[in-house]
Recover the amino acids of this structure.
């Protein structure tokens, strides 16, 4: 496919690896913020090509993993209501709540449907006037414009049976909170290319200035990630701390202004709990009051559920880059994709799932 | 996060409809995609699509420059090695 | 009275969809529940069918149930799938398929005309494979108690004396041939599901492989094992063989062919084609000396014109499959534990 295959090319990979290897790199920590980048790194085993001094740290960029357990319990409770069709992106269906998952309540008879686009939920609402359609709006800035557009469309077409359970989070505050925490020394960041497609790169510039850390806005294919690492390593060696855009074919400085406008016409910024990380100030999006008739939390009675997180799970530390999935005692023993204890084991882009599905040859016993 | 895939806009379904939809061709797979966020979109351009919405155009010139720069770096390395 | 359950307690209290996905949970279910209880030598071989002798005749016997949704999909329907699926399982045993049975579980209210269409295409399919459907059964369940129609077919065939296909024959150095592009069937079925609607020319590859296998067995006496990578895809079949043969397998990703539009659909939905079902492809383990000549013969068959040597059996990684990626790195190609879902992330 055009714009994908060129970036999976073995020769270009080799050129970039040669350049990285030719640098005299001291031990450094580079965090790839985004879970899709983590997956490319594991799926192509890029670490096999990199000098041992480069330590890749996997960031919190998996919207599914950081959705708080209480929110998943709410979703499950809504899905079990009478006359409700609960719609969700496929990623969310297997994520464990306190007791259940959406997949399990579906197996017990709840009408849970996997959708590809929020517009599919709108279509379902039009086709099923006697049902209430609830859409589980999760995601980062990448997904927020589409989620917002679904509410605007519902308003325009005067739908009264369409509701949204919003659990959206914002990347910049999460990155700042990681850099503030001092728990881990990061030498460079690979910023998430598709978030920046919407947001632009200004926030990256502010962070690289303030924290004196090089940031490379990076794409998702092996060539992208290796080039991101090369740019980061060069900056570290020359003591620079700028924001560089590696993903120029898609990301512009201002981002997509129309998409940003759409997000903030429907949502407003709020404090938000991140699963495993705790509350991060101003890191979430909630539905504005003028759209409250679409807000599932305001239009359905949700039985208070006592949420219950398994204490043995170290997802929080993994999402902060403090530990790697195979540092966890439960990993691949008590916690597997079929019997997950924590969300990163089942989210399609969770770090634990990536470690589980894409094991390295030297991990064979 | 955020799986997004490049595809080519082959038809704007209805200029005036809201949301504005386009047929986007991904190497033979055709999907209806909302292009509301790219008001100046034209047939033949490539867009990055996430959950049925085009988030931005894919800039072919930038891509070519980038790929060329990587290949040029190879020439430099080769010359150094000579 | 003894109320103890003879079956050991399973990790899961209930059957999950993943138990039927062809991944590691399916394997566990077969091992822990079925093989443990039925317990016999023929079953323990876990081939696509059982091969045994009756009065000096070597026979192959197999069964399969078909529950595809939707029942009509681009390139085929549940009826021909039910015929070809069982014919192919027999062919993978090296058998010449002879007779099939067909059982129908039909949901109340199912259209008679649709049933006729399905049955007609079963007849056409059976003629194409030179088999006859000689016995069967019909059950109707109340509306809501089944999903339109389920079909079970069983099949019986004769295995030539000299043919012996089994993972235990696999040897270091064996070449692995794949007979064409992968993931066509799974993606064709997905494309027909309403909630993921996209338009494409993608068609299921559903086809009978018995003629191809007959030719292959004539060309080479050194074919060690055959498999059709259906549910669970290429990755599941390779893992099954690696584990049964206690052999290490290396697969080269750049040798595995995908149709452009199938690849695009996989990218779009975030699915890995190595785990997606095929219904008209086979993998063949053959000695290195015979690999090239076999490949040349296979490519003459219209169902296998895209055949390619995709990997080999090595002395390392016993019981595992290692993938050499497009960029030359290596990693383990594991069984998936859960069925892939289309994703956004």
């Amino acid at each position: 496919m055009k714009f994908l295959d060129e970036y999976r090319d073995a020769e270009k990979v080799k050129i970039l690896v040669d350049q990285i290897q030719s640098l005299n790199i001291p031990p450094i920590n580079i965090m790839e913020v985004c879970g899709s980048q983590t997956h490319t790194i594991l799926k192509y085993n890029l670490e096999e090509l990199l000098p041992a001094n480069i330590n890749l740290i996997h960031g919190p960029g998996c919207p599914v993993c950081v959705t708080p357990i209480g929110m998943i319990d709410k979703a499950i409770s809504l899905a079990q209501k009478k006359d409700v069709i609960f719609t969700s992106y496929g990623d969310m269906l297997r994520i464990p709540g306190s007791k259940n998952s959406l997949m399990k309540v579906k197996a017990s008879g709840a009408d849970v449907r996997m959708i590809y686009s929020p517009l599919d939920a709108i279509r379902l609402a039009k086709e099923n006037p006697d049902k209430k359609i609830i859409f589980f709006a999760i995601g980062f800035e990448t997904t927020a414009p589409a989620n917002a557009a679904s509410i605007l469309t519902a308003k325009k077409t005067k739908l009264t049976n369409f509701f949204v359970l919003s659990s959206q989070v914002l990347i910049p505050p999460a990155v700042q909170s990681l850099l503030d925490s001092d728990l881990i020394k990061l030498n460079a960041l690979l910023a998430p290319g598709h978030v920046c497609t919407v947001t632009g790169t200004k926030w990256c510039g502010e962070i690289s200035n303030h924290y004196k850390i090089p940031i490379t806005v990076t794409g998702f294919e092996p060539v992208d990630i290796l080039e991101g690492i090369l740019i980061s390593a060069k900056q570290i060696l020359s003591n620079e701390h700028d924001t560089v855009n590696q993903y120029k074919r898609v990301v512009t400085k201002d981002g997509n202004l129309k998409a940003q406008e759409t997000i903030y016409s429907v949502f407003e910024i709020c404090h938000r709990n991140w699963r495993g990380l705790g509350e991060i100030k101003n890191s979430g999006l909630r539905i504005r009051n003028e759209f409250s008739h679409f807000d599932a939390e305001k239009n359905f009675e949700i039985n208070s559920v006592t949420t219950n997180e398994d204490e043995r799970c170290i997802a929080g530390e993994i999402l902060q880059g403090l530990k790697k999935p195979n540092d966890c005692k439960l990993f691949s023993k008590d916690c597997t994709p079929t019997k997950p204890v924590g969300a990163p084991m089942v989210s399609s882009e969770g770090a634990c799932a990536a470690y589980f599905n894409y094991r390295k040859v030297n991990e064979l016993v | 996060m955020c799986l997004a895939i490049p595809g080519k806009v082959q038809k704007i379904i209805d200029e005036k409809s809201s949301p504005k939809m386009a047929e986007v061709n991904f190497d033979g797979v055709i999907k209806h995609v909302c292009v509301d966020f790219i008001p100046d979109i034209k047939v033949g351009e490539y867009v990055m699509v996430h959950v049925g919405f085009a988030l931005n155009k894919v800039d072919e010139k930038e891509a070519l420059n980038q790929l060329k720069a990587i290949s040029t770096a190879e020439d430099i390395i080769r010359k150094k090695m000579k | 009275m003894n109320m103890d359950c003879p079956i050991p307690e399973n990790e899961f209290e209930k059957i999950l969809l993943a138990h039927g996905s062809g991944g590691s949970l399916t394997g566990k279910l077969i091992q822990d529940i079925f093989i443990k209880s039925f317990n016999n030598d023929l079953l323990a071989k876990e081939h696509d069918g059982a091969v045994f002798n009756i009065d000096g005749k070597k026979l192959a016997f197999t069964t399969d149930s078909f529950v595809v949704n939707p029942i009509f999909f681009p390139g085929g329907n549940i009826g021909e799938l039910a015929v070809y699926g069982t014919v192919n399982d027999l062919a993978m045993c090296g058998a010449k398929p002879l007779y099939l049975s067909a059982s129908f579980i039909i949901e109340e209210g199912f259209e008679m005309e649709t049933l006729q269409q399905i049955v007609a295409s079963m007849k056409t399919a059976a003629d194409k494979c030179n088999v006859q459907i000689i016995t069967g059964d019909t059950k109707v369940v109340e509306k809501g108690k089944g999903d339109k129609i389920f079909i079970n077919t069983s099949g019986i065939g004769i295995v030539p004396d000299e043919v012996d296909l089994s993972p235990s024959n696999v040897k270091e150095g064996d070449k692995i041939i794949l007979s064409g592009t992968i993931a066509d069937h799974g993606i064709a079925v997905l494309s027909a599901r309403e909630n993921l609607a996209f338009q494409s020319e993608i068609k299921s590859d559903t086809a009978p492989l018995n003629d191809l296998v007959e030719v292959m067995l004539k060309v080479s006496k050194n074919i060690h094992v055959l498999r059709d990578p259906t549910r669970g895809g290429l990755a599941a079949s390779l893992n099954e063989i690696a584990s049964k043969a206690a052999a290490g397998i290396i697969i080269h990703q750049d040798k595995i062919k995908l149709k452009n539009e199938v690849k695009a659909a996989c990218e779009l939905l975030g699915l890995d084609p190595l785990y997606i079902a095929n219904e008209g492809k086979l993998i063949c383990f053959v000695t290195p000396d015979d690999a090239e000549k076999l490949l040349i013969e296979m490519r003459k068959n219209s169902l296998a014109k895209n055949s390619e040597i995709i990997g080999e059996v090595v002395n390392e990684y016993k019981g595992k499959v290692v993938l050499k990626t497009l960029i030359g790195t290596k990693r383990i190609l594991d069984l998936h534990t859960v069925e892939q879902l289309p994703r956004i992330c």
Residues 16 and 36 of chain B are 11 Å apart (CA to CA). Strands of chain B lie at 5-12, 21-26, 29-34, 46-50, 53-57. Chain B has a mean pLDDT of 90.
